[in-house]
Design brief:
Radius of gyration of chain A: 26 Å
Structural class of chain A: alpha+beta
Radius of gyration of chain B: 18 Å
Largest sheet of chain A: 4 strands, antiparallel
Distance between the termini of chain B: 34 Å
Oligomer: heterodimer
Helix content of chain B: 55-70%
Distance between the termini of chain A: 70 Å
Shape of chain B: globular
Order of helices and strands of chain B: HHHHHHHH
Number of helices of chain B: 8
Amino acid sequence: MSAEQDHEQVQPLLSGYALGSLEEDERVLVEQHLDDCQICQAELEEHQAVTVALLEIPAPVKPRRLLRQALADAVRPHALSAPSPPGWRRAAIALAASVVVVLVGMGFLASQLSRLSNQLSSIQSDISTNQTALAITSYPTTQVASLEGEQAFGTFMFDPTRTIAVLYAWGLRDDSGEATYSAWLADSQGQRVKIGEFTADDNGRFTMVVLRAPEPIEGFQAVGVSRLNGSGGPVPLEPVLFASLEVLE
Amino acid sequence: MKPNSSLPDYELLQAISHGQDGALLELFDRYGDRVLGLARKICFDLMIAEEVTQEVFLRVWQKADQFDPRKGKLRTWLLTIARNRAIDRMRKEGRRPPREAVDWIEDDWRPEVTDPLSEGDEPRWRSLRFALAELPAEQRETLILAYYHGMSHSQIAEYLGEPLGTVKTRIRLGMDKLRKSWREGASDAGDRDVYQGGKDMR
């Protein structure tokens, strides 16, 4: 294909390229052509200026004070001025650097970095869950159901008009440390709808998990937690935690 | 007076890269409303938008040293991260925008937008908002799906039940009109605002 034919084919695609909406083959075609066509480069810059401005179009929404506080809590324990200890990010970077210096063997290095990555993921997951829990506690229509069981107990926090909830549970950890639990909601017919699956917290604290229902929670009559067997079915039939949602209406 | 409140954006980011959490909160105070507003338009759920907003600023906390001022403005970098994170979140959860809520321009109408930190582009954004509002509804809707929801042309065609060629034409015509409006609103040449980022904006 001649350069002119390329240009005729590519120019109409520049707007889609700036928006990021081209298919893969079109995107490659545009990028190959841009290397040699200053006309298209200039036109693309104009399209990109528009897309940057589009970032500013949505009306600003003033964040709730809780959101700011949650951010402050998330970073403050790790952001200390000199001399020590450094924040979690700097501690992680310092640890990685020391590992590189001291280690012998790529296998050991790989396992250490993998452990660090898992720790960071766990921290980020905890932060995300805490933020959701904080958000739910601030809604004026949030309700709380007390979960009861033979050995465990807990709290189910939710907004009836929403699909998201937070479960706090104590006493779920079993001796094997490998039990998986399923949280579910029961409708008026007694049908159970699974809203989450999780393992008990492994460091002795309560287990906290964000759950998502397929429809607003106000449509359900009860909430429960059951332990799953190896094939994913509940064991035993009786839930380990249960609460009726009807009394909260 | 807070020690960071008068710092230019880039110096604020440098303070963040040195672990000053007060600087991060200052950045949040400056742009948190913009980030949350953009995230909400993409996610349609305030709680999810708040989570995304948190993720964006925590991302800045982690990656502050990766921002290159030669590539564009901090504000653009921040909002680009926000857009990408919000779209990724929606994709991860398999959520699509409700059909009746896609075209939000009428609900979002604000005749005046004031921003003390606008750095001079505020009038052009207002003009662009007018231009977006004045587009034929089908062109505006297609652009919103492409840019604010990260849909490809074929995905938009499937979502709207329209031919692929129609979608491509609407995108091109709509963007041409916006580009013309943006060009007409230019006061100073050479204001390069596109952040030439890449992986550091996810």
